[in-house]
Amino acid sequence: xxxxxxxxxxxxxxxxxxxxxxxxxxxxxxxxxxxxxxxxxxxxxxxxxxxxxxxxxxxxxxxxxxxxxxxxxxxxxxxxxxxxxxxxxxxxxxxxxxxxxxxxxxxxxxxxxxxxxxxxxxxxxxxxxxxxxxxxxxxxxxxxxxxxxxxxxxxxxxxxxxxxxxxxxxxxxxxxxxxxxxxxxxxxxxxxxxxxxxxxxxxxxxxxxx
Length: 210
Hints:
seven-stranded antiparallel beta sheet; elongated; alpha+beta
């Protein structure tokens, strides 16, 4: 079994973070991820919640980045009305698309179902999901006219992980599910039992810049 990968940047008001937040962060640091997902530390936002922990990841095949994303764990010990809880997970996922896939009118709905499906497939309880799915196309002209047109999908989302014993959500499994989403958007085959029927994006033709 692969060794755990650790990553993340934490922000807080200065004093020792509350135990539930520390436990949630420790669980993220100890999560075991599939080897194609590379996780790195990234600065956490300072204004979204009293405490935050952030990481970024890329799905890598050789020297090619197939997809990348950012996951942020927010914690407000006093609770948050919009979250309906004390924790919130916020994510951004990006990947390049083949033109025929980008033209599919059902693509946004499918990508959103990949997010909720990844969480459900791991048996996770969550609430208050919200987000956007955006697709964009770039066409090159002049000195760049030799480049082929490029399309990209972007998923921005947030959800409230249900808290377990001690008020701590199962953040390790949420991270694993998020990496499942990254891998699916990148076009990698599923690894979890029962996921063989999952539809994934086709492999892209060239490298994606981070």
